[in-house]
Amino acid sequence: MNIVVLVKQVPDTETERKLNPADSTVDRAASDGVINELDEYAIEEALLLKEKHGGEVTILTLGPEQATDSIRKALSMGADKAVHVSDEALAGSDALQTAYAIAQALGTLEYDLVILGSESTDARTGVVGAALAEYLGLPQLTLAGKVDIDGSAVKIQRQTDDGYQVVEATLPAVVSVVEKINEPRYPSFKLIMAAKKKPVTKLGIAEANIDPAKVGLANATTAVVDFAAAPPRAAGTVVKDEGSGGIQIADFLAAKKFV
Amino acid sequence: MAEVLVLVDHVDGQVKKVTLELLTAARRVGEPSAVVVGEATDELVAKLGEYGAEKVYTAPAELDDYVVAPKAELLAKLATDKSAAAVLVSATAENKEIAGRTAVKLGSGVLTDVVDITPELVAEHSIFGGAVITHAKVTKGVPVVAVRPNAVPAEPASGAAAVEAVEIEISEAAKAARITDRVKQEKGARPELTEAAIVVSGGRGVGSEDFSVVENLADALGAAVGASRAAVDAGWYPHAFQVGQTGKTVSPNLYIALGISGAIQHRAGMQTSKTIVAVNKDPEAPILEISDFAVIGDLHKVAPQLTEEINKRK
Hints:
Helices cover 25% and strands 29% of the residues of chain A. Chain A is of the alpha/beta class.
């Protein structure tokens, strides 16, 4: 079974993240790039499925040159190879354009399953998996807390607010995963060394069959009108508990009419 | 005035509060039309009318037998047939997916996790864990916008609520992911986390899987219970209740953080809460910087006292 895992490089949450004043896109130079956290769970799930069913795990990344770091990390976890679509024309693409571009790039690969994290830590739209399924015309098995494959049948537990739904479909399919699905492995030294030799295919948008008129900031379906640093929250009251802390909170809540 | 479609969230014949908020927001933009998948009882329709719905479109419950795609077909069809000015949904994980697919079908754009919206459909977002506020708009086609619960206060206004059954044939492709079972996990009588007006969350400071100190306070306030990643990772509380970057985003009127230090990952999930109260042992905890009222102390003493005090004052 061939699995493609979508990996995105995002600004590290631990560093100060910024937008470019000129075009309101994420300033990727301002903070360190790291692999999107939920993508590690997607990679882990792909590796677990490969261990069970055989096949190959391919990483697919759209992003600038620096995204190579995240691709190497993904390979060092145990993925077999990678495809990196990197092209100036993709810069500033919104979530739906990204889904379109991924769908096109997937057209150049052979796969039974596409796995991705349910959202990225930078944009956090949570729409890419669904939009991708729409573009590909494939079953949408998103927000999975558990994935089971039996032949060409795939079954997931789709997480909902009050539990989960069992969802069934036939491969090929698009699966997005949530954090509870597994515990991503740490790359071993041996795998880190081996990852350096694994093939990474670089594609421009033409090679990935991506129409330049459908991607990039100039063709985006959404536009940022303006942005600003959030006004700092007014300094609140901080008291030390000297036996009446709970009552003091109750007084505060009463003044705010919460009780 | 152009119609603004609002996808109705409802459970057991009851409209969820967030739908009333969306109808209120829709009135800023145009004439609200509610879209109900499943049985539209008289009571449900009446409620939608009380918040300004001029029309109520109904579609068969069968659409809910498959993941997301049929509802996107429904919304895209209605948006086209009725020349809608916009489509609004609540910013739940599922509805954001519906919004995304609907926008792809319409060849338009989607905005998610919106915390405010103007009559011109300029949407406000709070990004990077609350550090930056952006305003954005959809520049192509019919805007599809997912609005967070508690973003716009619900205000009643009378609407005709004229019911119209939608005739729709769902494509075979949209039936590719079948829902074959639904498993409800223990939740009790508490409100839903992402929609609740008040959320009480517990973190590392709770110290064990005995979350009763958090739950008792939540129940006294009629609040939902949340948990930090540290508490979830420790196995003290289920993942479904995790608030933060890789969990749920909440935006309640009141957020009470018990024993949560307030790492950026957590703040990303709650920083747009209108009032924040914290109890923490550590006077250096980052949560104190964003709290409107904070007590430095042992949550196992402060929270029970607060619970008792609230119950006394009821």
